[in-house]
Amino acid sequence: EPPINVRSLSEAIGIRANDLIKRMMNSMGLQVNINANLEEESAVMLAMEFGVELEVIHERTAEDDLLEAWEPDEAEVLNQVPRPPVITILGHVDHGKTSLLDRIRKSNVVSGESGGITQHIGAYQVEHEGKLLTFVDTPGHEAFTAMRARGANVTDIVVLVVAADDGVMPQTQEAIAHAKAADVPIVIALNKIDLPNVNLNKIYGELSQQDLAPEEYGGDTPVVKTSAVTGQGIPELLEMLGIVAELRCEILATPSRPATGTCLEASISEGRGVVATVLVQDGTLKVGDVMVCGDGFGRVRALFDDKGNSVTEAGPSMPVEVSGLDEVPTAGEKFGVVEDVSRAREIAETRRLRTRGVALGERQAVTLENLYSKM
Ligand code: GTP
Ligand code: MG
Questions:
Q1: Angle subtended by helix axes 6-13 and 40-49, to nearest 10
Q2: Does any ligand 1 atom lie closer than 6 A to the CB of residue 39?
Q3: Ligand 1 lined by 99 (C-beta under 6 Å)
Q4: pLDDT digits 0-9 by tens, 80-113
């Protein structure tokens, strides 16, 4: 939608543009011209200074229609069935997230990583007592805040990995904040329990301070003592995750509908073009489907599961590598399947224009923040 600028505000509230510009200059020290974009809140405040209550009405856009079409309708909701829970591993850098997940899958991702730091979100499915669990790994490095936030947003349960020799650290606290913001239950894996001189009292105290009093301490946060090295506690952790998942009765999806979900990571791969790891959250994604993801679109050329096997479709909660998009989407962007390529192109082109429009608009937008700072 078009941004509010000084001219359109002037027309909307019947105050001369010159008076608006003078007011911004005099009371806020801002020098702007008639085409300067204003953030909605700033425009409301400015109007208020002239005794006008400005109500900004948002017109429905094609984008709104699209996102609504991606939501399940009533009949689809009636057809919902249980899907595997999506479990995100969060925690401070080096506390053992990847090692723990690796131990769970009994493969060897850690040794293949450069420098041992997880550079992207990996996602895998494992079977436990005949039921699938989907795990999403995240990096603990401070540079990856956005990825942890996105991880928390696609998840049903968070496993918060806390190293027993280190305790609650900055990225632990940040992970807790993400999990709380996403309103998902937290299971704590008190990892590296094999190390000597572990001070449980200290860590339980730190956890209690974060509002995560362990069950052992009379609180209600499940804490499982684990070691990715010896394997201690892994069965108990999976057991606990199964119990927590059962209690969350909203872990449902409609496999028969067109797929929607979230991009976890994406890159350009030589010979394969754009490759995106996506998590299917609802519906089933099939080879040949036409999908839109962020500014990219394309016909799904191939799908690979977490073990690198080629598959023809991916159902709810399944992480899958997709090739066929024309542009690299940003991790965290939603994807959805649309009717045909021309519709997909239309959506993607509108989005690309908008992205450019926003990038241009931002440069001269008067924000509430700089409005306040000049007052
Ligand atoms: P980032 O992805 O970089 O945030 O780290 P991470 O949390 O994935 O940690 P990672 O699994 O890479 O492990 C970090 C280091 O801790 C490695 O050297 C592991 O071998 C070691 N480690 C992980 N789990 C355990 C454990 O249970 N016990 C002991 N003794 N060492 C562990
Ligand atoms: Mg890692």
A1: 50
A2: no
A3: yes
A4: 999 999 999 999 999 999 999 989 987 444 455 4
